[in-house]
Specification:
With 502 residues, this protein is α/β, with parallel strands linked by helices. The chain folds into 3 domains: 6-110 and 294-303, 2-Layer Sandwich (Nucleotidyltransferase, domain 5), CATH 3.30.420; 127-289, Exopolyphosphatase. Domain 2 (Nucleotidyltransferase, domain 5, 2-Layer Sandwich); 308-442, Orthogonal Bundle (Hypothetical protein af1432). The chain has helices spanning 53-70, 84-88, 92-103, 112-125, 164-171, 179-194, 197-200, 212-224, 234-247, 266-279, 292-304, 309-320, 325-342, 350-362, 375-385, 393-404, 420-435, 462-467, 469-484; strands at 6-12, 17-25, 28-37, 78-82, 108-109, 133-139, 144-150, 153-160, 207-211, 232-233, 284-287, 448-452, 455-461, 488-494. A 6-stranded mixed β-sheet has the order 8-7-6-9-11-10, with helices on both faces. A 5-stranded mixed β-sheet has the order 3-2-1-4-5, sandwiched between helices. It has a 3-stranded mixed β-sheet with strand order 12-13-14.
Length: 502
């Protein structure tokens, strides 16, 4: 992938949208410009998890302004991630199309643990180096990420469905801060934390760090009121709790010196932080100035410098699921050869499509570790649902689609894409699996694949076809499968005596 002097990250959080533009010098990132707007997307989620019109409009207006700042940057130099609210909203796919049009760049919806990994990456790169294990807690608008890591390496990652916006709306929706509401909010947060308490409590780390807006706001409040000299303390939180209950109303929280955009979400954020301190045995927490958007920048920098976390994940999955590397390589090589023959004229980034196809080929047999019968369905389930560091939810869905469609009936593949590049990737993967069925290094004939719109034609050596009736029969079945989904795939043969494919 090409290197860039300037890169940018956009974090579409449940409370705030953040943009960071940075200059790249070797392996270092130097901030150039940043923007933050309180979109409060999670506040627009209805009881049936639909984004209301007002929150969508608020978000789209913000994205238009961000798009103006990003205008002129190459697509590969910008990475945009959507977090918990995008994961929850049932109408997120429809909203996503409008959001991408407003911003001018594609948006990736990332899984909770991937969000946790990126948060840790952002914090670790901007904190002093340490050999001790660190706990990083990030209370966002809709979710809370907890990570234990060492150096730049996250070791354990979790994402919990509780955030400052969602909890403030759920327990303090009328703006009143009562003793009962605070108790209910803290108990709910403690219940969420019970599932991770064993692995994340005090004896598993030496230093606790808070990141993002809630942690910074709480640390500022404690310092302004002389309840803590540095960071967040359990004693300081107890004093703040008493003060919040004494004030009793969000409308009067400005007397504490709180920024206006933090006032509506402070009670929910406080309740979660209080529960975190209690359940994870924290007495003191320092606060980082960096979080998700910086992690996205460093992850993007890794991709540009050929240190792509996605490559690491694919290699780990190949080992974990005992994939036959020789067979995966046969399928990968043939699939790429066929793809390159028909990729001319594609509107999308051909290099990115090839990379996705490579990974799908390497992992296409991942489901055999469960059962050979229906292994393509098992593979799709794993790839769509497993934690895959570096990959977005959309990328994982695309993986699942490709490997599910590698064999069997195409008409039974859910949501078969209408995009011609996706048809092509599926077709070449199916053909590669078909031709490499013997799982040996046999000599294949010269294979020529051609494309014209929705029509594909494969040309093979006539003599080879006659000598391989099993493959010919499989190819004829392939013609019928593609015809059933409205794609014309045909086979021709001619006498060819040179240039075999091995």
């Amino acid at each position: 992938m090409q290197a860039y002097d300037t890169i940018a990250a956009v974090d579409l959080g449940s409370n705030s949208f953040r943009l960071q533009v940075a200059r790249v010098v070797e392996d270092q990132i130097y901030p150039l410009d940043s923007l933050k707007e309180t979109a409060r997307l999670a506040a627009g989620l209805t009881s049936d998890n639909l984004l209301d019109d007002e929150s969508q409009l608020r978000a789209l207006e913000c994205l238009k302004r961000f798009g103006e700042r990003l205008r002129g940057l190459p697509s590969h130099a910008v990475r945009v991630v959507g977090t918990n609210t995008f994961r929850l909203a049932k109408n997120a796919p429809a909203f996503l199309k409008k959001a991408e049009a407003a911003l001018g760049f594609p948006i990736e919806i990332i899984a909770g643990r991937e969000e946790a990994r990126l948060i840790y990456l952002g914090v670790a790169h901007c904190m002093p180096q340490s050999q001790s294990q660190r706990l990083v807690v990030d209370i966002g608008g809709g979710s809370t990420e907890c990570v234990i890591g060492e150096g730049l390496e996250p070791l354990r990652m979790e994402s919990l469905y509780m955030g400052c916006v969602s909890y403030s709306k759920r327990f303090f929706g009328d703006g009143k801060i009562t003793k009962d509401a605070m108790r209910q909010a803290e108990l709910a947060a403690r219940m969420e934390l019970q599932s991770i308490r064993f692995e994340f409590s005090g004896g598993n780390w030496q230093e606790a760090i808070g990141s993002s807006g809630t942690a910074r706001a709480l640390a500022d409040l404690l310092k302004q009121n002389d309840w803590s000299n540095e960071g967040i303390t359990a004693e300081g939180l107890a004093k703040l709790r008493s003060m919040l209950l004494k004030i009793g109303d969000c409308k009067r929280l400005d007397t504490l010196g709180l920024k206006s955009d933090r006032i509506p979400v402070l009670p929910g954020g406080f309740a979660i932080m209080s529960a975190v301190f209690t359940e994870l045995d924290i007495q003191h927490m320092s606060v980082a100035g960096t979080a998700l958007k910086e992690g996205v920048l460093y992850d993007l920098l890794g991709r540009l410098h050929h240190q792509d976390m996605r490559e690491v994940t694919v290699s780990q999955f190949m080992r974990r699921y005992h994939i036959d590397p020789l067979q995966a390589k046969r399928v990968e090589d043939l699939a790429l050869l066929l793809f390159k023959q028909v990729a001319q004229g594609f509107d999308v980034d051909v290099a990115a499509e090839q990379q996705q196809l490579q990974w799908a080929a390497r992992l296409h047999e991942i489901g055999i570790s469960i059962a050979h019968s229906g292994y393509h369905k098992h593979a799709a389930y794993i790839l769509e649902n497993a934690d895959m560091p570096g990959f977005s939810k959309m990328e994982q869905f695309q993986f699942g689609l490709q490997v599910r469609a590698q064999r069997g009936s195409l008409s039974k593949v859910p949501k078969l894409s209408e995009i011609i590049e996706d048809w092509t990737a599926i077709l070449v993967l199916r053909l590669a699996v078909l031709f490499c069925r013997s799982r040996t290094d046999v000599t294949l004939p010269k294979i020529q694949l051609e494309r014209s719109g929705k029509k594909y034609r494969i040309t093979l050596d006539k003599e080879w076809i006659e000598q391989n009736p099993l493959t010919e029969n499989a190819l004829q079945a392939e013609v019928k499968e593609w015809e059933a989904v409205g794609v014309n795939f045909s086979i021709t043969s001619e006498l060819v005596t040179t240039h075999p494919y091995k």
